[in-house]
Design brief:
With about 220 residues, the protein is an alpha/beta fold. It has helices at about 20-30, 40-50, 50-60, 70-80, 100-110, 120-130, 165-185, 200-219, and strands spanning about 10-15, 35-40, 90, 115-120, 135, 155-160, 190-195. Helix 2 (about 40-50) crosses helix 4 (about 70-80). The structure holds zinc ion.
């Protein structure tokens, strides 16, 4: 059964920028009452709460470098050890490298891990990303159906950082980084590639189905 506390719903979400991964992670977390753990959030939190790992991360970032595997793994390990993650979690932004994926296996042990890869063709991603609009007053990211900003009524403009060249570069970096991780997980029975070109509700249903299949298989 989904939500059965005996079978934790441990989910890793992979997918390029523009695939709707953040939204799907959020929806899954809400529906199944498990925390959505995004590496950006927990990194900021570790720095703010001044933990040993947070201080180490801050030193690296202050020097203008990217936080490496060892610190990231430590921060994720501490977060997953908290009580609210015992019944499951959704990871967004981790693992980013194969060593991080290996470390995650070690953190989880024998508990099931479902990995979904939200797949969207490059042309669709470029179209989606290049047409994303934000409010020029408050910076709110607008949904396609919004005519004016739903937060403050301000005018919506195309996001300046999302020009086609920059979009392609972000996608190239993502693919380069992530291809080895997809390769790492692909052969596992709990790996699912999900068609991200469908409507958000259909993508959500496909993710739930993947998780239910695993939970059902474990019962
Ligand atoms: Zn606004």
């Amino acid at each position: 059964m989904i939500g059965d506390p005996i079978i934790p719903l441990n989910l890793v979400m992979l997918g390029p920028p523009g695939a709707g991964k953040g939204t799907q992670a959020e929806r899954f977390a809400q529906k199944h009452a498990v925390p959505k753990i995004s590496t950006g959030d927990i990194l900021r939190e570790a720095v703010t709460s001044d933990t040993a790992l947070g201080r180490a991360a801050k030193m690296v970032m202050d020097a203008g470098r990217l936080v490496g595997d060892e610190i990231m793994e430590g921060i994720v390990r501490e977060r997953l050890a908290r009580a609210d993650a015992k019944a499951g979690f959704v990871l967004d932004g981790f693992p980013r490298t194969v060593p991080q994926a290996v470390a995650l296996d070690d953190m989880i042990g024998t508990k099931p891990l479902v990995v979904v890869d939200i797949v969207v063709p490059e042309e669709t991603l470029v179209r989606r990303l290049a047409s994303r609009r934000m409010c020029e007053v408050c910076g709110h990211s607008a949904l396609p159906e919004e005519r004016g900003c739903s937060k403050c009524g301000g005018a919506l403009v195309v996001r300046i950082d999302d020009g086609a060249g920059i979009v392609l570069e972000r996608l190239r970096i993502y693919t380069e980084q992530t291809a080895p991780i997809v390769q790492f997980y692909r052969g596992r029975p709990n790996f699912r590639a999900i068609d991200g070109t469908k409507a958000p509700e259909d993508v959500q249903a496909a993710i739930c189905e993947a998780v239910t299949a695993v939970a059902g298989g474990m019962a």
